[in-house]
Q: What sequence folds into this?
């Protein structure tokens, strides 16, 4: 499984997807072929917005590391992403504003590789958000 | 060319600790052949639905293996395994239907089989029907993905956890009278609501088990069918697919593959949703059955909850659904489920369903792969 | 010339109070708080480690300036808790930042001074013209044996210092004082470090910190009066305050960069987060003396002079803002977070 993880590291560590210049659609995970335009599509790699809101969520029980929160997040450009939320189950709510963060997703036991990737956290409050 | 089912057979569904993969499907296959009254040598081809013998048993190449252990090796007939996650059985049915409809074969067997209790993590394997790289990597499993849809749908249309519980209660009640069912006992709404969450809002008792089991049916062309039986059940079958990962679907409140497959199956069978008297649906989670009411056209979008609240889909209601107990209570032997559904509808249309018998002329089954990336709708008529 | 072009910090949101740890071990919390000058320490989430903390700190540093990540020529991550014993943290950071492939990278280890060691390397590489920008990170999720005195202090946090040819503060000089002093160590394959108890004070911390500070000032002709702020490695609150007073600095010059009371000892990040807290409030032309300490042992000292550019540099959220955003854990949840419960 190492090559399969490694191959997509670029897209997992950062929110990097693709964009079809022909129909102006964004894709995450990245697609090499636009499902709207197919071979007429012109695909380019792009950085996606790092903020969004929770469309739907669930708290998963009975799995390793559970309870944890899985959410469908709609980014500011309407791209949907399935991700873990790095927050406590009681903190999540529909429509919650979130921003991305870099976290561990798991590891292959004590001796195997560590899987890192993008998760989301509740968007930090006014006292915290950059005032630039 | 019209296609008929002339024989059906099913193993018990459940945790079949004492039976191997080979024994389970042999039991179902022999019953189906016996029921059809054909000789083994008349079988021209075998279609097997199986999701994951590789992961469950470390055994691939199972179509030939099944033909072999079913005593068909000397005949050398083509044996084909098809896979579409837990719609594998439905897909075997559809491939067998096409083989007969095309005129290439006159008598074929469609079977579905899964042996899941030989390994530890059956849920993980079942969840491999979702996108491993972009859904499961994030920690999502099948219940979690259905839960994401359920929460959206319930919020939008006023569904309650009690509504979901009613589906489980109904299906358990139906299973009491099904000799092959895994859970032949009734449960109460309270029991469902008090069972622990596995992926909020879905609970343990909203979920189908992952079961061992096999089912087989014999399909024949109309002309051949008439020779063997006075009660052929004619079928029309259609399949559709959708994005595998939820995040790519434009509308999460509708299973597009179900809508498309249903539309095509209705067209081929020249019936509409209103004409359906009985249905076996894919209630891998209670919520899914409600969503399917809508996407099959039994209820308007958002009104699926009303069918379960008003008892429409109970035995005795206008449109009994999952008289077998469904995946929830009859058991969900992954690749066998699609065929097992066909067995139930055929038995109902032939008036052989015993205490769960309903009055029906037109039946429908819906078999879904994963979270809806594959949907197979079959319509049955006497 | 080498400058601090940008900086970023990350402090996990969870804290455990000294009282909560003391409660478990039947110790006197007030005496410990008094003795160490620590009230609580930061604790990482289940899915945080040195690499994730390093990435978050570095991302903040990049967010604050308009720099093409591909212009970064070197990444050094200093830590005593690298997630892998063999396999660099620096490459994880480089990939997450989109630095490309053309960069020098290594993980550094020198107990709590591995972060400033990275700064010295970047300083030298930028000054020599080898690279345009270099990224030096100190990041740790410090380990402590349950019941050990270290448990009150061993914390988690990270700071990333982006060093380049222009920026908000010039690194005027750096100097190190190093000796072979086994005051604190962790042997291979051991989960927790050991330490020499009171031996970690006089012959280790104070000898190196004082000699590095004095050596720097002597070699580059500075005196105590030339500095507005002084930041030391802060394993507790007592040591840096005492070091300041031994050198002749006032308490007011130390406290802006003294964070250990609220976050504990963030090891490789400790003095760097202190530096960042000072940069959060510093004005042009102010001068900072930074002195780290790493057991084993050594101290890196720096003269840092703030430039006019800091006026246009976005410094929020400040380190203090981040420290104030927190959620408390009880001891059993803390054990779960730190994966000290065998599952």
A:
């Amino acid at each position: 499984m190492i090559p399969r993880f490694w191959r997509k590291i670029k897209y997992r560590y950062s929110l990097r997807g693709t964009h079809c210049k022909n129909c102006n659609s964004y894709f995450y995970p990245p697609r090499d072929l636009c499902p709207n335009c197919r071979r007429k599509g012109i695909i380019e790699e792009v950085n996606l917005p790092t903020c969004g809101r929770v469309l739907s969520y669930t708290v998963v029980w009975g799995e390793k590391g559970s309870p944890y929160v899985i959410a469908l997040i709609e980014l500011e450009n309407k791209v949907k992403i399935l991700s873990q939320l790095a927050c406590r189950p009681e903190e999540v709510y529909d429509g919650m504003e979130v921003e991305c963060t870099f976290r561990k997703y798991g590891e292959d036991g004590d001796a195997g590789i560590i899987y890192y990737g993008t998760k989301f956290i509740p968007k930090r409050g006014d006292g915290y958000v950059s005032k630039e | 060319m019209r296609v008929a089912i002339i024989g059906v057979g099913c193993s018990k569904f459940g945790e079949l600790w004492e039976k191997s993969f080979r024994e389970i499907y042999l039991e179902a296959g022999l019953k189906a052949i016996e029921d059809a009254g054909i000789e083994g040598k008349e079988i021209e081809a075998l279609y097997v639905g199986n999701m994951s013998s590789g992961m469950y048993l470390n055994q691939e190449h199972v179509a030939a293996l099944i033909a072999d252990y079913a005593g068909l090796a000397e005949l050398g007939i083509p044996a084909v395994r098809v896979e579409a996650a837990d719609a594998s059985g439905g897909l075997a049915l559809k491939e067998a239907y096409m083989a007969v409809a095309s005129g290439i074969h006159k008598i074929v067997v469609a079977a579905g089989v899964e042996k899941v209790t030989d390994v530890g993590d059956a849920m993980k394997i079942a969840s491999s029907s979702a996108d491993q790289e972009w859904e499961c990597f994030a920690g999502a499993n099948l219940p979690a993905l259905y839960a994401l849809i359920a929460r959206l749908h319930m919020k939008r249309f006023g569904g309650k956890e009690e509504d979901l519980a009613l589906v489980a209660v109904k299906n358990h009640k139906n299973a009491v009278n099904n000799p092959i069912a895994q859970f032949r006992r009734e449960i109460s709404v309270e029991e469902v609501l008090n069972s622990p969450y596995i992926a909020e809002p879905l609970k343990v008792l909203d979920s189908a088990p992952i079961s061992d089991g096999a089912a087989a049916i014999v399909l024949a062309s109309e002309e051949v069918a008439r020779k063997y039986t006075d009660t052929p059940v004619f079928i029309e079958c259609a399949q559709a697919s959708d994005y595998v990962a939820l995040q790519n679907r434009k509308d999460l409140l509708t299973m597009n593959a179900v809508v498309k497959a249903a539309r095509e199956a209705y067209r081929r069978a020249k019936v509409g949703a209103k004409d359906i008297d009985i249905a076996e649906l894919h209630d891998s989670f209670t919520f899914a059955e409600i969503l399917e009411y809508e996407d099959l056209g039994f209820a308007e979008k958002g009104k699926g909850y009303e069918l379960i609240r008003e008892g429409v889909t109970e035995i005795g209601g206008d449109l009994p659904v999952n008289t077998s107990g469904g995946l929830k209570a009859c058991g969900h032997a992954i690749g066998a489920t699609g065929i097992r559904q066909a067995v139930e509808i055929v038995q109902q249309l032939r008036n052989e369903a015993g205490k769960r018998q309903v009055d029906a002329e037109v039946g429908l089954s819906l078999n879904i792969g994963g979270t809806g990336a594959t949907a197979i709708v079959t319509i049955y008529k006497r | 010339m080498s400058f601090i072009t940008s900086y970023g910090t990350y402090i996990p949101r969870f804290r455990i109070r000294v009282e909560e740890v003391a409660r478990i071990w039947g110790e006197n919390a007030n005496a410990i708080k008094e003795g160490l000058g620590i009230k609580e320490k930061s604790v990482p989430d289940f899915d945080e480690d040195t690499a994730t903390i390093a990435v978050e700190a570095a991302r903040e540093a990049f967010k604050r300036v308009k720099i093409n990540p591909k212009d970064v020529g070197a990444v050094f991550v200093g830590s005593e808790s690298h997630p892998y014993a063999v396999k660099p943290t620096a490459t994880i950071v480089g990939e997450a930042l989109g630095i490309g492939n053309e960069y020098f990278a290594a993980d550094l280890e020198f107990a709590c001074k591995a972060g400033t060691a990275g700064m010295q390397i970047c300083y030298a590489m930028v000054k020599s013209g080898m690279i345009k920008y270099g990224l030096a990170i100190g990041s740790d999720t410090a380990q402590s044996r349950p019941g050990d005195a270290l448990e009150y202090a061993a914390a988690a946090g990270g700071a990333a210092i982006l060093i380049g040819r222009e920026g908000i503060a010039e690194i005027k000089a750096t100097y190190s004082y190093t000796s072979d002093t086994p005051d604190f160590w962790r042997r291979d394959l051991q989960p927790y470090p050991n330490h020499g108890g009171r031996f970690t004070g006089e012959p280790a911390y104070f000898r190196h910190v004082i000699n590095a500070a004095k050596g720097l000032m002597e070699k580059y002709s500075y005196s105590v009066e030339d500095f507005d702020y002084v930041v030391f490695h802060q394993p507790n609150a007592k040591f840096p305050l005492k070091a300041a007073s031994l050198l002749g600095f006032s308490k007011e010059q130390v406290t802006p960069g003294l964070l250990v009371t609220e976050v504990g000892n963030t090891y490789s990040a400790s003095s760097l987060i202190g530096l960042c807290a000072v940069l959060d409030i510093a004005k042009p032309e102010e001068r900072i003396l930074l002195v780290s300490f790493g057991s084993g042992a050594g101290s890196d000292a720096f003269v840092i002079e703030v430039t006019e550019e800091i006026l246009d540099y976005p410094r929020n959220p400040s380190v203090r803002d981040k420290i104030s955003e927190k959620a408390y854990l009880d001891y059993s949840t803390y054990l779960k977070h730190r994966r000290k419960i065998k599952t």
User: Anything to note?
Assistant: Chain B is about 40% helix and 20% strand. Chain B touches chain A through 29 residues (CB under 8 Å). Chain B has a mean pLDDT of 97.
